[in-house]
Each structure stands twice: as C-alpha cells, then as structure tokens.
Amino acid sequence: MALALNDRVQQTGSANTTVSFTLSGSVTGFQSFAVVGNGNTTYYSSFDATGNWEVGVGTYSTTGPTLTRTTILSSSNSGTAVTFSGTVNVFVTYPSEKSVNLDGSDNVSALGTVSSGTWQGTTIGVAYGGTGVTASSGANSVMLRDANQNVAVNRLNQSNTAVSAAGGTTALTAASSYSQTLNGTGNQTYTMPDATTLTTGVAFVFNNNATGTLTLQDYATGAIGTITSGGAAELVLLSNGTTAGTWDVHGFLPENVTWGTNALNLGSTVITNGTWNGGTIASNYGGTGLTSYAAGDMLYYTSGTALSKVGIGANGYILTSNGSAPTWAANASASVDQAYYLAFMMG
Fold this sequence. Notes:
Blueprint: E1 10-16, E2 20-26, E3 41-48, E4 53-61, E5 66-75, E6 88-92, E7 160-164, E8 169-171, E9 179-183, E10 188-191, E11 203-208, E12 214-217, E13 223-227, E14 232-239, E15 246-251, E16 258-259, E17 264-265, E18 297-301, E19 307-311, E20 317-321, E21 327-330, H1 334-346
Parallel strand pairs: 7-9, 8-10, 9-11, 10-12
Antiparallel strand pairs: 1-2, 1-6, 2-5, 3-4, 3-6, 4-5, 11-14, 12-13, 14-15, 16-17, 18-19, 20-21
C-alpha cells in the first residue's frame, strides 16, 4: 500500500455511515479514483449539499468501488467523521496538515522522517543530526561509536614529535603529539600542558634517545620525574582539577632487559636504590643463602659455595679447628678471636 496523489480526481457517491464512500458517479473534466490504484491511499476531501465537509486519508478499493475513510484530518464535525446526507462529492486534495510550505522567512519547518532522499544542500550541522562535514577523510573524517562508546579500527597511528636536546624546555599543549622523542647530545626539560585543558586519561609517552637526561615537569614546573639516556616512560593524567594536574608516570624496560615465562633477564642493567623483598639469594647469584643475622654475626666458608655464620657475642669466640666444619669456643678476647678467624679465612 502506497500513498498516491493524482491531479483532477473527483467523483460523486454516497456515504456508508461514517466508514466509507461508494463512488458511483463521474464529474466532467475530472478523472475517476481508479487512477489511485487498488489498495493505495490518497488524501481526499468531501462535501454534501447541506454544507458538511471532511478531509482525510482514504484507502481506495476497486470493489464497489469504495474509498474507506481511514484517517480523519479535519471536518465540519469538530475533526471527527461526518454523517453525510444525499449525494457526496469526493476529490483528491492536498491537506494543509500534510503540506510543506516556506514560511515568511523562506524556511521550512521540521519535516519528520524523509525516506529515499538524497541531501544536496549545505552542510548539516551536528545540532540538526548531521556531522558538520562534507567529506569523511583526513582531519574531517567521521568516526562512529557503538552502544558502549567503543570504536573498532584496524590500526591507530599516534603522531610523534622529535626534539633535539639543547638544554632548554619544550612546553607541551593539548594539541601536542602523543609520542615525544628526544635526540642529540645533552639534556632537555618537558613541561606538561595546562591540565585543565585536558580530560583525565590523556597520556604522553617519552623516548630519550639523547645522551643526557630528559626531565619531566607539570604545568606549574613541579617535578614529575626524569628519564635517563636510553630510557622511556609514559605519563597519564589522573586529575585535571588544577593547572598542574596529577600525573602518573611509569617507566618502560630497557631493550636489553627481557621477560621469559618465569625469568627476568636484566642483561647488563645496574639496579640502584632497590630493596630486595623476594626469596633467598643463593651464593652463586651473589647472595649468602641466609635469611637472618644477629648483631656481630660473621660469615665463613664451609664447602662448595655454601656460607655459614657465627655469632661473635659479648666475649667473642675463638676458632679451635680449621677444618671444613670449624669449631668455635668462647674467648674473653675479641682481638684473639678475630686473629684466628682471619687466619682461618686465609687458609
């Protein structure tokens, strides 16, 4: 069923209560409703000799033929179906309720749903359901999100800005590249953008390929951290309530450090300022194999790579045997004890 509008269509007929019209007569100079097509709808207007009138949407049928009064748009009966008397004239019309017209400023009001149309006007702004752009490529490309506000892409290429170290300061802004690379010889300081111009979660990654130190500061020149030569780190904005903001920094492993299934290979990396909180470090890995000591304890060699300890105590101990399992005895002279101990250690 489709809406059909045809020119100069009019017939006479009679009303079947308030349900339909039976179309039986013709009007000179007009077509019959047969041009509308069986089962199609059309806009109609009708009137009788007493002044009753009605405008609505009718459905035409070749059986009868009839025009069923499907929807009443307006009428002389306060917008409801009219009870006509005698002969009724029925014709195709263009109701004001369904018309599209220019207003006094040559604008058209809301059209509702437009189907099967191709827009060929000016750019449609976002406020009117458009994108505000006329081409979906480059800087003006359109990206759609799913119901969870996620975007699926094959690859996201982040821009990179390279700076040559010159002992100066590089001030980042909200428009700065995600990736920042420092090259050359010397040091360089980077200051973060005004945090109030960013959204939380914004991140920057820094790669120090220079010979010197890369220093990181917030917008208020507060210290965030440093990246030594060959290092890299990422900063993530946790809070943007102030211009300085709160930044979280995490360093990356250097290229000569690798992770295996259950092993960490540090290569030639030097560990400084760390506190070991793991298991016992065996002597063949530079440890002692022991987990506890008391004040004054001393280590001595037993066999293989094993180490043992002996407590010196208040009066000291004296070595009485220098075999693989030495015997120690209490002695009042710590200096004598130390001498025997040194002799034992030197063989």
